[in-house]
Amino acid sequence: MKRDYDCFDLTFRDHASERWTVRYDPDDLHDVLAVSEDGTHRYMLEEKYVQPMTLADRKPGDAEQLQRVRDYNVALEAETGRRLAHHYEGAKRTIERTRELPIYGTPALGACPEDKLMLTDSRGQHKDNRSRKRLAAADIEALEVETVEIPVTRQGDAVEAYQVNDYSIF
């Protein structure tokens, strides 16, 4: 039987890439303990509460569980907004520091916002390898062409047997 669990701790989703071991009591599967592989993180998970589809099927406690999920979502949205603001401020400081560079305003760096946000590879080149491949394919002069003449005859004509042993032309 498949069971779904929820965790109402905001920090649990920060560790989505970790491997977890779930420990549980076979007599009570309502609450389980998730332990990270290295044992540094522990979270209590509770069995997901299944809300009824219609208002007529509601039982006592359904509204409280729904409000609990809504409160968690509001808190999660606020935390996500706080993190985005923090990352925005860090990016803003980095962009503002480019003005202090001696080459700011030159065509090499800092002349336009696109240059400030340019992604480069380890050699300082644009990470636009698709353009390099496209331009290499368009370089027709780089192609070598070899002309091979094959005699054309009509069916039934008496012609010497033409044999080709070199199939590299195909």
Write the layout of secondary structure elements.
Layout (H helix, E strand, L loop, with lengths): L4 E2 L13 E6 L2 E9 L5 E6 L14 H36 L6 E3 L2 E2 L2 H4 L12 H10 L32
Parallel strand pairs: 5-6
Antiparallel strand pairs: 1-4, 2-3, 3-4
Keywords:
4-stranded antiparallel beta sheet, 170 residues, 6 strands, alpha+beta
Summarize this, please?
The chain has 170 residues and is of the alpha+beta class. It is built from three helices and six strands.
Please explain how this structure is put together:
It is a single chain. With 170 residues, the protein is an alpha+beta fold. 29% of the residues lie in helices and 16% in strands. It has helices spanning 62-97, 113-116, 129-138, and strands spanning 5-6, 20-25, 28-36, 42-47, 104-106, 109-110. The strands form 2 sheets. Strands 1-4-3-2 form a 4-stranded antiparallel beta sheet, with no helix packed on it. A hairpin with a 5-residue loop joins strand 3 and strand 4 (42-47). It starts with a strand and ends in a 32-residue tail after the last helix.
